[in-house]
Amino acid sequence: MSNLPFSLYVALRYLKSTRRDALITFLSATAAGGIALGIAALILALAALTGFQAALRGEILARTPQIEVELPPDAEGEAARRSVAQLPGVEGVGLLIRGRGWLLAAGRARPVELVGFDGELPGFFPEASDRAEGLYVGDRLATIWGLGEGDLVEVASTRPTLSPIGPQPRVRRLLVHGIFETGRTEQEARVALPLAEAASLLGRADTRLSITTGGLDEALRLAPQVAAVMPEGAVVKTWRDFNRALLFALRLEKGLMFVAVFLIVVVAAMSLVSDITLILASKLPEVGMLGAMGARPRELQRVFLWLGGSLVAIGTLLGVLVGIGGAWMLDRYQLLSLPSQVYFLDHVPFLVRPTDVFWILLATVLLTFGCSLYAAKKAAAMRPVEALRR
Amino acid sequence: MSVPVEARGLKKTYRDGARRVDVLTGIDLRVEPGEFVSVVGPSGSGKSTLLHLLGALDLPDEGAVEIGGTSLAALDPRELASFRNRTIGFVFQFQELLPDFDAEENVMMPGRIAGLEVSALRHRARDLLAEVGLEERMDHYPNELSGGERQRVALCRALLLEPPLLLADEPTGNLDPKSGDQIFDLMLELQARHGTTAMVVTHNPELARRCGRLLRLESGTLQPESR
Ligand SMILES: Nc1ncnc2c1ncn2[C@@H]1O[C@H](COP(=O)(O)OP(=O)(O)OP(=O)(O)O)[C@@H](O)[C@H]1O
Ligand SMILES: [Mg+2]
Fold first, then answer.
1. Which residue out of B12, B20, B47 has the highest number of ligand 1 atoms within 8 Å of its CB and is therefore the one to mutate?
2. N or C: which end of chain B has fewer CB within 10 A?
3. Phi and psi at residue A68, in whole multiples of 5°?
4. Which positions of chain A have pLDDT values less than 50?
């Protein structure tokens, strides 16, 4: 304690003694408290957004293929599938046919997206009890229509067949094989059905490959390699391409939130400047005396930098504690609930990302340090003889 | 350790817009190492101004100051600060002590600035305070000390690093004659013991007469004054 550097030693003493001054105390509290408030608010706001985004991403990405390749109309689907399957890192390749159609049951009809698959039901139809080949409908539609396994439905294509009595819709009668979970974010009903049935309804013109890899990042890494082995005219899309607009919106939202909430820190930094300036003014004769005794200008400046720095440190520490602790509590005990009928989550999730905290701290420290430096410079510019004549 | 002080052709004018105060119009001065000089003069004659110039706190408009062979004009603010710290002990006219530090801490401050080891400084500060009879007042803050006690503490602080030059601006101001006498005795005694070169401003002609040499500052110049 006693062997502190001169500037810190004096700064700590001033921090203590200026508590007797009501205005300075108020400004110090505003500065430190404002920084704490700003940091806590930033951490909480970003944690809530991150929590939402993680949930939303999980929800949406579970219903998006990792990589999907649109093959050109004349391409040989089976050959393309074999060449992709050989790539190291690819865990599964399936043929898909996508198209639009109608689901009809018990006299009711509804437009649906048809997804024909071969082999196992693809992963982007989550939570099905059984993944064998067959017809699958979403649980929401199944509940509304009272459908269950083994019920008979009709699937109609929007592509008609020409017959002697005019164009006739193509219709297949199929048994419901299973139910998958419809996400709360899913706008349109999807129906999965065997590839052969889909081909007879929609034709084979829009054949695609659905590729599964070890993970989302792995999929992004593999996409160019997939493109390289595909025939001319094929379009390779990753989960990121499917959700580009959404992912961008999420990032933008976070950036705007950061800027808006950071204004609290900006205001706190302003009061830090007035605080340091006021302390400096009230201590000017003493600072002059220290200068006369041989304290170098830089050292006197450092006294006030330490002063600002300790207020920043107190505020930052408090802010981080409240922010991270608060986020943990709110998430752990699900304190903020949401109406589950309205939203896909029943509480506000909080997820603190270390990189977010890092950027918050970096921005705060840079700004407040800059402000402290600006205010403290006046101590270095002071001429002892002028201060002594006060 | 002590140093000579030499000033040649010092001039200082304060300008404040149209107003002009010619305070020092030509000061030539040489103080020998270990000499004790006192300066008297009417209020406003520029005694403090002169002391500030000699103490490397302010720069003259014209002329040069040399302390122990070092020309002050050649030093930048950083070097001036270090020079003051090592070479000069000040007793100021108005602000004697730092209000946020107790007596002992005040005395230690020049050593703190120099970055010296704290326990050794504390030792030295206690010895000095004991020498001036303040062993009971070490942990008192300035507002808990009497005027005379404060000036004794200020003197201890000026002498902490055993500077070769002591500059004191009315160290006995605002004191009753008896206390002023005591402080002055103390200063003479300490100065004699350490062989410090000293220059003391005072309004008290009796005290001034007890110094080795007496100078009078009047209308901007210094004249020797007979005792
Ligand atoms: N910064 C300044 N600006 C203008 N005039 C000044 C300034 N500082 C001092 N003066 C003037 O210079 C003159 C000398 O001042 P100084 O403080 O040196 O006097 P002094 O001899 O120490 O007086 P005292 O015995 O009252 O302490 C005074 O007339 C004062 O008004
Ligand atoms: Mg004076």
1. B47
2. C
3. -130, 135
4. none
